[in-house]
Design a protein that fits this description.
By secondary structure, the protein is an alpha/beta fold. Helices cover 34% and strands 12% of the residues. The chain has 16 helices and 16 strands. The longest helix has 27 residues, at 35-61.
Length: 608
C-alpha cells in the first residue's frame, strides 16, 4: 500500500499535468444528479485509472513469487477496508464496483481509486482549491443564570431587557427553541457539557459543588476539550469552572483544607489544565469570584465588579492571539459568571435597563457577547468558526423576578418556573448557533436538544470519536442543516436542584414530584399531600405546564417512568458499550409517598 501511495505522490510537475489531461472522467459513468457527488465520482474515476496503471507496471516488474504474494496481501487488505470507505462515502459500494465488473483484480483496482482520488484532488486540482480546508474553530459562550425570556428576540412580547448583540447572532444563525441545560443549576450542567454525560451519574446527586474538593470530572474521563486537543486544537477556558478542584500549598505540596478563600500563590493540581484545556483564566464559582486563577495558580484578588470586564478582555485577547497561528484550530469555552449574583454592573451600565440591577447586568453581559463576536470577525475567523451562545440554567430568584414581572418582563417567557426548578423555566435555555456557510441565517429549530449533546456534535463535526465516553450525548449536527436529529436516545432526563427527575420523550414530560422540585412554590417542603404524586404534561399543547394529566393518562406515565428508569440504571441513555454509574444508589423517585400496604410489600420483598 505504501508503495502505491509513494508512486502516486511522485507524480508531479509536467507529468502530473499531462496525466490530468490524459485521464478524463467518462461522464456516462456518473449519472448522479448532484453536482458535488458527480465531481467526487469524477475524481475517483481519475484515481482509479492512475492506480490501474501503477498496478500493471508493478505486476510486470515483480516476477518473484514472494513479491506476488505481497501484492495479493495488499489487495486483500484493500478490498476489505476501502470497500467500507466507498459505502460510507457514496452510499453503495456497488456503484463504484460497476466501473470494473469482472475479475477480482478489477474490483480491487476500483476500490483503490478511493485512495488515489485523495491524492488526485491535491495533485491535480490545485488551481481550483490551492489550500486544504481549515478545520472549524469552536467558541461556546455560556451565561450564568440567564433566563430563556431574558433574550429579547426569544421573548418579544414580554421581554423588556435589550439584548441587541445576542439578537444579532440569532439573525445570523439558528435559534433552538427547545434546548435544555443538563440541570436546573450550575455544576451539573457544566459537567454534562464537557463530558457528554449526566452529572447525577457521579457523586453529585443534588445541589452544586463549592470547591476545595477533588475535581468532579474523573482524571480518566475524556472532556470535549481533551477530544479536540487530540486533534491539535488549542483549547482555552475563560470564566467560571465550578466543577471542584483542590488548592495546594506551593511550598509543601499539602492540600489546603476548606476555608473562606484560597490564598494568592496557591496551586491547583486537578483544575481545567488537567482536564483537556491548555489555558485557564477565571475563577471557581460566584462565591469565590474575587480569586482569579491563571492555568493552575491563584494569581490575584480582583474586586467582583471588575470580573466581567476582565473575562471580556481575556476572551478578546485569546482570539487575537490565535490569529497569530491561523492554521491551528482552537476551542474557546467562555462560561461567564454573569448575570449570576452578585449583580455588579460597572458604572457605564448601571441604570441602563430602566428595570433593576439584574437587568443592567444582563445588558452588560450582552455587550460582552458582542465584543467576542466582533473579535472573531475582526481577526478573520467568522467564516470558519462555530459560535454558540447559551446559558447554564434559568434565571435565579435573586434577580427579583416578581419586581421584573410587575414591569412587564417575564424571565422565563411563557414557561413555568425558574432556576433550580424541574419545570421548563428551570432548564429551558437560549441556544443560538452561528456558523456561516453551514447554518442558514435567521433560521430556527424546534427539535429537542440538551447541552449534554455538545460533546457528540463536536465529535461528529471533527470526526474524532470518543469510544466508551459521552454516554448520554446525541449529535445535533443534522439539525444545523435543517434535517432531523438521528437519536438512539428515547428521551431527555431533566434534574432539579433537589435531585428530582423529569423525563421528556416527544411531546410528553413526566415529573417525579408534585411541585417545583426547586425554589418556586411549591418547593419539596411545601408540596400538598392531596396533590397527585407526579406531573404529566403535553408540552405541545401545554408548554406552560398548567394542566396535569398524570391521573388521566396513567399508561403514558408508566411508559415514561420505565424508559427513564432504564436510562438511569444502565449507565447510559444512548446505544453503545456497557456503562456503569459512578454512584450506585441513585434514588429515581425522591420523596415519593407510599401507602402502608406498599411499604409492607417493600419490606417483604427486601428483608433485612
Amino acid at each position: 500500500m505504501r508503495e502505491v501511495l509513494a508512486k502516486l505522490s511522485r507524480l508531479s510537475g509536467s507529468r502530473s499535468a499531462h496525466l490530468c489531461l490524459d485521464l478524463r472522467p467518462d461522464p456516462r459513468r456518473f449519472p448522479s444528479s448532484s453536482r458535488s457527488s458527480s465531481r467526487s465520482l469524477s475524481m475517483v474515476w481519475i484515481g482509479y485509472q492512475l492506480v490501474t496503471r501503477i498496478l500493471d507496471e508493478d505486476r510486470d516488474e515483480d516476477h518473484d513469487e514472494d513479491k506476488r504474494a505481497k501484492w495479493t496481501k495488499i489487495e486483500t487488505k484493500i478490498e476489505t477496508t476501502i470497500g467500507t470507505f466507498c459505502t460510507k462515502t457514496y452510499g453503495n459500494a456497488s456503484r463504484l464496483r460497476g466501473f470494473a465488473r469482472g475479475s477480482r483484480e478489477q474490483i480491487v483496482r476500483t476500490a483503490l481509486c478511493a485512495v488515489a482520488s485523495l491524492l488526485a484532488l491535491t495533485t491535480f486540482a490545485t488551481a481550483s482549491r490551492p489550500n486544504p480546508p481549515r478545520r472549524v474553530n469552536i467558541v461556546l459562550i455560556m451565561c450564568d443564570d440567564l433566563g430563556y425570556g431574558d433574550v429579547q428576540c426569544l421573548n418579544p412580547e414580554n421581554g423588556k431587557i435589550k439584548t441587541p448583540h445576542v439578537d444579532r447572532l440569532a439573525s445570523q444563525g439558528m435559534t433552538f427553541t427547545d434546548a435544555h441545560s443538563g440541570s436546573a443549576v450550575c455544576t451539573p450542567t457544566r459537567y454534562g457539557l464537557l463530558t457528554g454525560r449526566y452529572s447525577w451519574r457521579t457523586r453529585l446527586q443534588n445541589g452544586v459543588v463549592s470547591g476545595f474538593n477533588p475535581c468532579l470530572i474523573a482524571p480518566n474521563r475524556l472532556t470535549v476539550a481533551g477530544l479536540l486537543k487530540k486533534q491539535g486544537y488549542a483549547t482555552g477556558i475563560i470564566g467560571k469552572w465550578h466543577l471542584d478542584f483542590q488548592y495546594q500549598d506551593p511550598k509543601t505540596g499539602e492540600i489546603l483544607p476548606k476555608q473562606g478563600r484560597a490564598p494568592v500563590g496557591s496551586t491547583i493540581p486537578d483544575g481545567p489544565v488537567t482536564r483537556g484545556f491548555d489555558y485557564f483564566h477565571g475563577f471557581h464559582h460566584a462565591g469565590h469570584m474575587d480569586r482569579i486563577i491563571e492555568d493552575d495558580k491563584v494569581i490575584e484578588i480582583l474586586e467582583e465588579i471588575h470580573c466581567l470586564p476582565r473575562l471580556t478582555e481575556k476572551s478578546v485577547a485569546y482570539i487575537e492571539e490565535r490569529a497569530k497561528s491561523p492554521d491551528q484550530p482552537f476551542f474557546l469555552y467562555v462560561p461567564l459568571g454573569s448575570p449570576h449574583s452578585p449583580h455588579v454592573p460597572t458604572e457605564e451600565w448601571q441604570g441602563k435597563s430602566g428595570l433593576n440591577v439584574y437587568a443592567d447586568f444582563v445588558m452588560q453581559t450582552d455587550a460582552t457577547v458582542g465584543a467576542i463576536a466582533e473579535a472573531i470577525e475582526k481577526n478573520g475567523f467568522a467564516d470558519n468558526t462555530l459560535l454558540i451562545f447559551t446559558s447554564d440554567n434559568g434565571c435565579s430568584r435573586g434577580a427579583d423576578i416578581p419586581a421584573l414581572r410587575e414591569k412587564g418582563h417575564y424571565v422565563s417567557a411563557h414557561y413555568r418556573g425558574s432556576k433550580a426548578d424541574i419545570w421548563d423555566g428551570g432548564h429551558r435555555v437560549p441556544f443560538i448557533v452561528r456558523w456561516p456557510g453551514n447554518v442558514e441565517a435567521g433560521s430556527s429549530c424546534d427539535q429537542l436538544i440538551t447541552l449534554v449533546d455538545f460533546f457528540s456534535t463536536v465529535s461528529e463535526i471533527t470526526g474524532e470519536k470518543a469510544p466508551n465516553m459521552a454516554e448520554d450525548s446525541v449529535s445535533f449536527l443534522p439539525a444545523l442543516s435543517g434535517d432531523p436529529i438521528q437519536s438512539t436516545r428515547k428521551g431527555v432526563i431533566h434534574h432539579s436542584i433537589s435531585g428530582r427527575f423529569a423525563y421528556r420523550e416527544g411531546k410528553w414530560k413526566l415529573l417525579l414530584t408534585s411541585g417545583s422540585g426547586g425554589w418556586s412554590f411549591p418547593s419539596p417542603k411545601q408540596e400538598n399531600a392531596d396533590a397527585p404524586e407526579a406531573q404529566l404534561y403535553d408540552m405541545e399543547n401545554d408548554p406552560g405546564e398548567q394542566n396535569n394529566l398524570y391521573r388521566s393518562h396513567p399508561e403514558v406515565a408508566q411508559r415514561l417512568l420505565a424508559d427513564m428508569t432504564a436510562d438511569v440504571k444502565r449507565g447510559r441513555s444512548t446505544v453503545g458499550p456497557a456503562a456503569t454509574n459512578d454512584f450506585a444508589n441513585i434514588v429515581i423517585w425522591k420523596g415519593r409517598k407510599r401507602s402502608g400496604s406498599a411499604r409492607s410489600r417493600q419490606r417483604k420483598n427486601n428483608p433485612r
